[in-house]
Amino acid sequence: MRSLARIDSAILAQRGHLFPWTPVCLALGIGAYFAVSREPGWIEYLTVAALGTTAATAALRWPGGWSALGWAAMLAALGFSLAGARAHHVAAPVLGWRYYGPVEGRIVALDRSASDALRITLDQVRLRNTRPERTPERVRLSLHSDHVSTLVPGARVMTTAHLSPPQGPVEPGGFDFRRHAWFKSLGAVGYTRVPVLMSGSAQHSGIGIRILDLRLSVSERIRAVLGGDAGGFAAAVTTGDRSGVSQETLRALRVSNLAHLLAISGLHMGLLAGFVFGALRLGLAAIPQIALRWPVRKLAAVGALVAASAYLALSGGNVATERAFVMVAVALVAVLVDRRAFSLRAVAMAALIVLALRPEALMGPGFQMSFAATTALVAVFGALRNLDMTRIPSVLRPVLGVVISSAVAGAATAPVAAAHFNMLAHYGLPANLLSVPLMGLIVVPGAVLAACLAPLGLEGIGLWMMGVALNWILGVAHWVTSLDGAQGNVISPGAAVLPVLALGLLWVMLWQGRGRWVGLAPAMIAVWMWTGAERPGILVSDTGGLVGIMTEKGRALSKPRGNGFVAQIWLENDGDGADQAQAASRWPAPEGRVRRFEVGKTKVVHVIGKRAASSVTSCAPDQIVIASVAFAPDGGCDVYDVDRLRKTGSLAVNSGQIVYARDLAGDRMWNRRKPRQ
Fold first, then answer.
1. For residue 140, is pLDDT > 90?
2. β-strands 118-127, 554-557: how paired?
3. pTM for the predicted model, two decimal places
4. What is the DSSP string of 300-345?
């Protein structure tokens, strides 16, 4: 009883500091929904609702320190239910077979793939011999034709394309693109090698289509004025259109840890709102009739909120930008109601709004990195607020602020970036110190000036300012990339590592008093788990076309070309910086299109193509045969041909145990084979 009383008093001591824990509890429920292996039914939802209601009732009935745990349980139950409701709300048909034939639809998005191919997203889709209730709500096509017509948002187009359902994990337990596509109502992806033809005039009736058309027009104008990668960079930070940035520059920005400057996130939204707020406040304060009669600070906050809303619409309103807008809006509303704009309460409120609107955002690196950086910055600068800074010269204080903010944000986001992208930018801090200040001092003011002068046709002045700063940033990115050891490769952690690490560090930042240092224990455990992570000895793609085996030199791949995306993800998850051709050169004793190898006690035969399959007529019972075609040899071996792999998904073999991607992904709405109506 004494220990229970101590826990009760410890929680009571946190009164006034418990609100920042509300999004954490909500996130635990959301994470539980995505972690279960079977789609919950109405019985599970009723059970969760009953448990949450009981916990809330107990918290009301017996107030005190323990009541906080009741509210935490209620929030977790609410998060579980919110995630389930969202998944059902966005439910749409998913293509259940491979399709080749005519595709018709309306263009609602234009972007570029990782291979730099132009992509279009269509809604109002029509497919040959496919009933409307089985037709995907949206499809995305990569255009590989040399004859691409001028495509405009809202235009109805038609082409002949290859379509397939969204791809599952490239390895068991890996990123499931099907879940990502589910929440975008993307029911099929594919490509076309023939021209895309207009089948109807552009429809500009919808506000979304009008905004997209405006975005692309602005982006085209920016690239016409600035040109090159600087123009593509300026278009990306203004409208969210990255199609004008070359793949080489994208790689340089990633290696130098400057890729976040391309995404319209909290940095851009905060700089824009802060610049507009400061400019309006200064301008209004200079007019005595207004300064003496009106609340200048609140008027400036309203103007900054309007500017942020316009920026949200112009940038396309994707999830990352919506999240940034919510955070900025919470800060500006805090100014309007005379509250502290930057506090852990404001960050918690922004996180609650984002999670309530899009619970699936919790699983993405964008949400994790942005709120990790924001929470760490607010916590650190809150701790530094009481320090005596008078000994530091006033000229150096802004420089010190930039150094601290860059270091804290980089340290907070580094584990998330390493877990999701398997990469560490060793010179990210100096690159950000040389680049981020220019975003606030030149790029954002130049963008605002260009927007103000655009009606007069003088936007070139502001764009020139942006171009000067962006060329400098691009120069820094390429210079850092050329340095030895600029990029480090990190092995992919286990599924539990990031949640445990996040909960430990959140405890350090949110708990008040000396008890906060208890959070270091789970954080260190997570790091220990990460350092001990092991990769599968054998990986097999879901088509049977690629096999990777772990050797002393790293993973060896069965072929130097083909299945390039799968090969890239495998090597990245291994923490291996080699490309596919280098990994293929590690293969022991190449044997043409029939590859035989042994890892531990596992004997594997990889058969590539129909000709190779015809040459292998029998196999041993202790062998595993992987085939990229339908294959049925004699001998009683365990055969995984293309037909069986469609059912199991990709494979991982470790110590003789075979793990199916299908089993780890579970039976969820986004990976069920039965077409939904």
1. yes
2. unpaired
3. 0.86
4. HHHHHHHHHHHHHHHTT--HHHHHHHHHHHHHHHHHHTT--SSSHH
